[in-house]
Every structure is written in structure tokens, then in C-alpha cells.
Amino acid sequence: MSDLFAFAQEDKTQKIIHKRVWKILVIDDEQSIHDITANALKSVIIDGRRLELINARSAEDAKEKLNEHKDIALALVDVIMETPTAGLDLINYIRKDLNNHIIRLVIRTGQPDEVPERDIIDQYDITDYKEKTELSVDKFYTVVRSSIRQYSHLLELESKYEDVYKQMTIHPLTKLPNRQKLNEHLDSSGPKNLVLINIDGFSIINETQGFDVGDDLLMQMGGFLQSMYGDEMMVFHLEGDTFGVLSTDMLITEEKLISIQKEINEMSFLLGGIENRLSVTLGLAMHEEGNLIQKAEFALKEARTLGRNRVSKYADDIKIIKTIQNNSTWSQRVRDALESNNIVAYYQPIFLIETGEIAKYECLVRLLYKDAVILPFKFLSAARNSGQLHRIFEIMFENACKKTREFSGQFTVNLTDQDLQEPELMNFIDKMLGKYNVNPKQIGLEILEENSIVNNEMIKERLDILSQKGMSIIIDDFGAECSNFGQLIDLPISVLKIDGMFIKDLPENPKHQIISEAIVGFAGKLNIPTVAEFVHSQAVLDKVTQMGVTYAQGFHLGKPLPNIIK
Question: For 499, which DSSP code?
């Protein structure tokens, strides 16, 4: 071992760039090893830093040194010290108990027969294994230098990881922890309390005052929440205009929830230099375990259904959860029905009042489930939310085209704003018309009077094209959304269907009579025919006839059936 510590020094011209040092922990129960190592390494410089040796003469002593010095780069570990496996047990302590995977660990042993190299390398997370007798000058120097370099590289990677981690877990604007960081805090067991806070009307602030004003408001809100609740709870900025307050110890009751809302309401925020008060909507998951964010979001959605500046607490039976569960159930049933051809068309006759003859049929969707025929109010919302609504339109439209072979009148099909924005809609319609050799005048398209349609230029352009082909454009449920007559003048309307809510109680409701008469009068001046839905009795039929309505549809005249009347 005489040449073990006869280290060749690095180039003496190398300058010391940093005053910092590389710390090396020497763990050995032989004092002579410490003395010779100190003498051999005293002049070594690696990457501009000298080496600082820290001596430990047992595994227990080494543990104390490791806890005292968190930046040790390399540990030279003897195996057999106070116990035959003291060094190996220390390695497990470093890697597992201290969770330190950066420090480089090199085993130096004088009893290789008792601690075989292959067994040690297979079972322990070490950097290198050396027998004391085999370490020449160059080999030992190489071990120290390469270990230090590895440690330096790992430190750099860890620093980069921490930078990336911060970017991933901190909101870039408010510097508050974000949704991902919140998820990390929720990984621990035990009940917790989470409040989600949403700024009412934030999108309007962005649109009317600019994104800079909106960003400044978010920073003000984040600072306010942190100053008010940061000492006793954790504050998060999940995304956009939604913040969160998490408590693991203190119970957030409904009273506390209302108190938080009140404190925010009373705070003045600057919007473009002008003081303003804000309203916020809050959702609380109180003393809950598992899916805490989702539960708080359910409560927040429930509060939003009530209007602005509301609060709601999560419960298993809140309405929004029932809606979501229902949508989930019916989404799958719709998917199954589409795959098994159990989405079918029923046909309800529409009569020309003047002659009493069937002039049209409306194609109405039905879902066959087990032994039941399911009405659309059960599943259409789920179909829309799950992206299956357009496939239903395609089935209805193709059925309408097929039926034109059996009836010379018109078949009408419901068309949504989603359908009107489908890229392949126009090609599909042309394909079906050609496949069944349909006169376009035999097809009517029923659309809802919605802002998403009347304010969308692409949709209006498509409706113009469809109208020019000869198809009727029918406004369905007219009057339901406080109709804007002026907006409708820009659409190529062929027919107005008066909303059924005004028709079904027409004989005994004077207000509905006034509204219906106004719609019929408006349509008449534009030479647009009208349809009365929900004609469920002779009295209703007599009333719409008296008003001058063109067509009538309802159970009194004919129920929807799987085939047309022949």
C-alpha cells in the first residue's frame, strides 16, 4: 500500500477559480488511512476547487457528519468497521433514509473475500468498488476525479430539474403554486378542505379593458389571498381566474366560506387605476378525501348555476353531480346505440290547417334501449357533450332522404349549431341527396333561434347555400329566447315554428295569445308560413286556426310513429 496515496498532482498552473471546495467524507476505522489520505489530497485541485476532507471513524460518526454537511460530493467508505456490514448499512442509510442520490459512494475495502465485488455492486447503489491493495496512484486519482465530476454533473442536472419543476408548479403571473402543485399536496392521506374562488365577469374585464388590466387584477387577487389566508392556509392559482385555498388542519365551514366571500367583496381592486369592488363565486369541498379538486369544482359549478356572487358546498347529491352522472350514463348508451343501429327515426305529421291534409313530417330521434323507446330529452344533452350529436343528425337526415320515396311532401330534420360547423356537413348533405335522388325542396332543416347561429357568418353563409339549393330553413321554437326580429331578417327563413310553450295553453292564457298573434302577424308581413307545435286538443287547434297559423303539429293530430301514415 506504499504507493496508494502517492498522488500525482494536477497541473500546478491551474488557477483556483472558486473559493468553494469539494467535500470528501473519508469513512474508515484506521487512523493511518485518514492521515495518509489527508496528506495525499492536500494539493489536489479539481475544476478550480480544492478538496476538503471530513473524517469519520465509524458508520455512526459518518451519519452525524452527513447530517451536518449537506453538500458532500464523495464518500470513501470502508465496509468492515464497528460491525462486519457497517459500511453497507451506511450506504443504505444515505440512499434510502437521507434520500441522497447525488453523493458519490466509493467502497474501499481491505477484505474483498468477505465483501465480494459482484454481490456489492448488484445489491447497493454505489459509484465504484475498489480493493485497497489494487489502488495504484493513477487508479485512485482517477476514481476521485471521476466521482467529483459525476457529482458536479448531477448537481447541474438537479438545478435544471428544479428550474423546470418551478416552471411546472408555479403560476408564471402571480408566482403562486398552481394546479399541479395543489395535486401534490392532495396526495397525502387524511381529510382536507378546499375552496375554489372564481372572479365573476373576468372575461368581460379582459375584453373591455384589455389583458394587461386583467393580468394586473389577477396579481392583485393573488396578493390579497396570500396576505389574508397564507399564514393559516395554502393559496394556489389554479388557472385563469380561478384561485384555491387549501386547509389541512383548520376546518373550513360554510360560515367561513361566506366570510371569505365577504372579505373579497369588501376589498377594493384597481382596474385601470380606478377602484372597483368584485363579486366572486366560491365552491367548497369540506373535510373530504379523494378527488378534492373535482369535488370543489362540482360545488363551484353548482354555485354558478345560481348566478353570480354565490357559494356552494359539495355534497354527493348536489344537482350538478346528478347531471354529470346522468350524462356519463347516457353518453355510453348513445355510443352503444349508434354501434348497434338503435338510433332510429320516428315521424310526426304536420298538417296544413286550410286543407286538413298532411303536408310534412318531422323526423324525431328515438333511442332503443332494452325494451323501451327513449325520448330525446333523456339523451340529447349527453350526446352533445360527448361529441355524438352530429352522427345522430346524419342518421336522421339519411332517414328523411329515404322516406321521400314514400311521400311527396316534405321531411324536416333538426340541425344544431354544432352540425352547422361540421367541416363535412355540406358534402354529406350533397351525398345523401344524390344517393337517394332527392328533390331538395322535400327537405326542411329546423334550426334553433340562437346567438351562436345568427351571429356566426360561416353558419349564415351555409344556410344561404342550403336555401339556394331549395331546402327550407325553419326557425324552431321561435319566441323562446326573447326573439330579435331584426336579427332573423338576415337569415333565409322559409318557416317559423312558434314555441310550444305559447301554444299548449293558448285558449286560457291571454299573454300567450298576444305573443302568438304578434309572431303570426310579423311572419305574415314577410310572407313566411308559421307552424303551431303542441296542438294537443281541439280547443288549441281552433285557436291557432282563428289566428291564421299555417300548419299545426301535435298529439291531437298525430303522434310520432316509426313509419309514416299511408
Answer: P
Closest by alpha carbon to 263, among 177, 194, 182, 195?
A: 195
CA-closest candidate to residue 56, choices 78, 26, 86: 26
Length of the chain: 566
Q: CB pairs under 8 A, 24+ apart, for 545-548?
A: 545/353, 547/513, 547/516, 547/517, 547/520, 548/520, 548/524
For the chain, 566 residues long, give each residue's pLDDT as a single digit of tens: 434 443 333 343 334 344 589 999 999 998 988 887 787 787 889 988 999 999 999 999 999 999 999 999 999 999 889 998 999 999 999 999 999 999 999 998 877 777 677 778 778 889 888 877 776 666 777 889 999 999 999 988 888 888 888 888 899 999 999 998 998 888 777 899 999 999 999 988 988 888 999 999 999 999 999 999 999 999 999 998 999 999 988 889 989 999 999 999 999 999 988 999 999 999 999 988 878 888 899 899 889 888 899 999 988 767 766 766 677 788 899 999 999 999 999 999 999 999 999 999 999 999 999 999 999 988 988 888 788 899 999 999 999 999 999 999 999 999 998 899 888 999 999 999 999 999 999 999 999 756 556 667 888 899 999 999 999 999 988 876 545 566 567 788 899 999 999 999 999 999 999 999 999 998 999 899 999 999 999 999 999 999 999 999 999 999 999 999 86
Q: Which residue segments constitute the domains of the chain, with CATH numbers given?
A: 22-165 (3.40.50.2300), 179-315 (3.30.70.270), 325-552 (3.20.20.450)
| 184: number of Cβ within 10 Å | 10
CA–CA–CA angle 386, 391, 396 (5° rounding): 130
